[in-house]
Amino acid sequence: MTDETVYERTTEGITVRVLPIFLDEQSEPERGHYLWAYQVLIVNRGARTVQLMRRHWIVTDAFGRVQEVEGEGVVGEQPILAPGAQFDYTSGTPLPTPSGFMGGSYLMRDDTGRELTVAIPTFSLNSPESAGHLH
């Protein structure tokens, strides 16, 4: 990982770690288009096997406008994590402003059928144009 800020949160033995990366070469500030990638690592530190069923993201731009994104799994998968296992993926999000933040939750189901809502830490999306304006 780079010198960027890593955000982490643990819920019921499931740790979610996120590293946001501003994609300068794919952004077009003059057109109000800023793009970030975010790398996610999910680690099952609990005693039961879990499966990631759904995601719910809340994305907020610098003007406070909110967009919610919900759907099955992540990057086309519904990974199963045994105790001690981990899963990582990379995705991305655009914003019309040079900064913002996002966070949310995963709906997981353990091997007994119990559903868990696992928090995704809220993390800042900051471009070089937003330097000094951390969220």
Automatic annotation (TrEMBL):
Any Pfam family hit: DUF525
SUPFAM superfamilies referenced in this protein's UniProt entry, alphabetically: ApaG-like
ApaG domain ranges (all copies): 8-132
GO biological process, one term: error-free translesion synthesis
Entries under InterPro entries matching the protein: ApaG_domain, ApaG_sf, Uncharacterised_ApaG
Bilayer-spanning residue ranges: none
Gene3D superfamilies, per database record: ApaG domain
Name of protein: Protein ApaG
Gene: apaG
